[in-house]
Amino acid sequence: MAMSREAFGSRLGFILAAAGSAIGLGNMWRFSYQASEGGGAAFVLLYIAMTLLLGIPLLLAEFSLGRSARLGPVGALRQIGGRHWSRLGYIFTAAGLLILAYYSVIAGWTLRYALESLTGQLPADAGAHFGAIAAGNSAVGYHLFFMLLTIGIVMAGVRAGIERASLLLMPMLFLILLGLAIWAATLPGATAGYLKYLQPNVEDFLNPDVWRAAAAQAFFSLSLGMGAMLTFASYLSRDVNAPQAGTLVALTDFSVAFIAGLVVFPVIFSFALQSAVGASTVGALFIALPTAFSAMGPVGQAVGTFFFVALAVGAITSAISLLEVVTIWLIDEWQMNRKPAAALAGLTITALGIWPALNTDALGLMDKIAGELLLVFGTLMLAILVGWKAKSEMQAELEHGASTFWAAQVPRILAVLRWFVPPVVLVVLVFSARETWQMMLDFFG
Ligand code: TRP
Fold first, then answer.
1. Residue 294 sits in a domain of what CATH number?
2. Does the CB atom of residue 97 touch ligand 1 within 6 A?
């Protein structure tokens, strides 16, 4: 088995695939609504702090586990942690299933908006439009369409599918986003948007909820806590400088979120659309921005098309990594071939996604449970496994292939993982569990 395992063809291919997993709807949809609703610039600053202090150590924890075991989460955790830890692998796999089920529904909306902007059919009243298309049969249809694209890429394999798609799509996304940020700077009233985005308010720092949201956002955005990065690292050559690659991925992910904010905030303030943003978690992307785009005529049509294409591109490179976690479980543990494994996993997820495609409250609940609570729990366990139980092994793994400079950082990073990450994540977990519970009461009550 180990002999035939697939591998990334190049270091750049791995970095772009990992960055592709990280960069997605989280950077644009989740990041901008959290920043606009909870804490503005304070949230942004805390989010970068969490990315550096929690995100990078946890990312490297996943890299070390995956690269040393050369197996997906279930097998890797069994091999490194023992039989009990393999159960965590099942939780990871289940989280992948659940996250992709609703993620794909949102991605389906972006595909629809991209097509509608392109053909000039995006209605001027974006609020009413979104209300009409968010849930229902057409949402199921676009979800299916998006899943089929994702399944196709994962079926093609690590090198011919995942790596090739990332090498093509990631540079495209960077360019579009950069162009949009430059355009947004030219809007009248952009400054008010920048101020809200970049000028912190001291009170917001004192709100523990802003801290929880910033940590949870860092995990989601870096694809941490469910073995997606672990799985990609299992295809990575041991000669690659893993600490450097991980740091690069984290900084790229942060930069894209930051640049997305430089697009979203000026547009919202320039068109006085703050109220549309606050209305729902999807307000900024699917209501406020399209309203602005349609107010701008043909320029808006072009900008809108690019924007939603960028979103769809980010979503697909992320969805690949979620599907890969479930697929590799079928390949590693059930000895299935890649193509039927990807199809079976993908179609199961497609079926699961029908629920959130018909019910946006269900979508929100799934995001809370799988996209936040399970990930926070997952990162806590990863920090314990790599920071305590398998520390010396994982330290050696990370030092292997690292340059002198980066090898010298490894013990420091592991010390952070051992002493700092678990207590902080534990606090986040408590807050997150409380919120999830509240949300479940609201949903079922
Ligand atoms: N990080 C992606 C985003 O920001 C989403 C994602 C892909 C993800 N794989 C994941 C989130 C694994 C959590 C876990 O859109």
1. 1.20.1740
2. no
| Nearest-atom index, ligand 1, CA of 31 | 4
Taking the CA of residue 225 as reference, the ligand 1 atom at the shortest distance is 14
Residue 279 has pLDDT above 70, yes or no: no
pLDDT value at residue 280: 60
pTM: 0.95
Which of 59, 105, 153, 220 to probe ligand 1 with, by most ligand atoms within 8 A of CB? 220
How many angstroms is it from 40 CA to the middle of ligand 1? 22
Side-chain half-sphere CA neighbours of 330 within 13 A: 20
Tokens found for residue 3:
């002999």
Q: Give Cβ neighbours of residue 1 (< 8 Å, ≥ 6 apart).
A: 332
For residue 320, give the 3-state DSSP assignment.
helix
Q: Residue 2: which pLDDT band, with cuts at 50, 70 and 90?
A: very low
CA distance 28 to 354: 23
Is the distance from the beta carbon of residue 379 to the nearest atom of ligand 1 less than 6 Å?
Answer: no
Residue 113's contacts (CB-CB under 8 Å, 6 or more residues apart) are 122, 286, 290, 304, 308, 311
Residue 272: inside a domain: yes
In this structure, is residue 288 part of a structural domain?
yes
Please indicate, yes or no, if residue 3 is contained in any of the structural domains. Answer: no
pLDDT value at 170 more than 80: yes
- Establish if 281 belongs to a structural domain: yes
Whether 230 is in the pocket of ligand 1, judged by its Cβ within 6 Å, is no
Q: Locate 49 and state its tokens.
A: 């702090």
Rounded distance, CA 30 to CA 281, Å? Answer: 8
Q: What is the pLDDT of residue 203?
A: 87
User: Tens digits of per-residue pLDDT, 154-166?
Assistant: 999 999 999 999 9
Contact 272, 430 (CB under 8 A): no
- The residue whose CB lies within 8 Å of the most ligand 1 atoms, and thus the one to mutate among 93, 99, 105, is 99
* Angle of CA points 256, 260, 266, to nearest 5°: 150
**Whether residue 313 has its Cβ less than 6 Å from ligand 1:** no
**Structural domain count of the chain:** 1
Mean pLDDT of 63-77: 98
Distance in angstroms (rounded) separating the CA atoms of residues 80 and 306: 44
- Domain residue limits at 283: 11-444
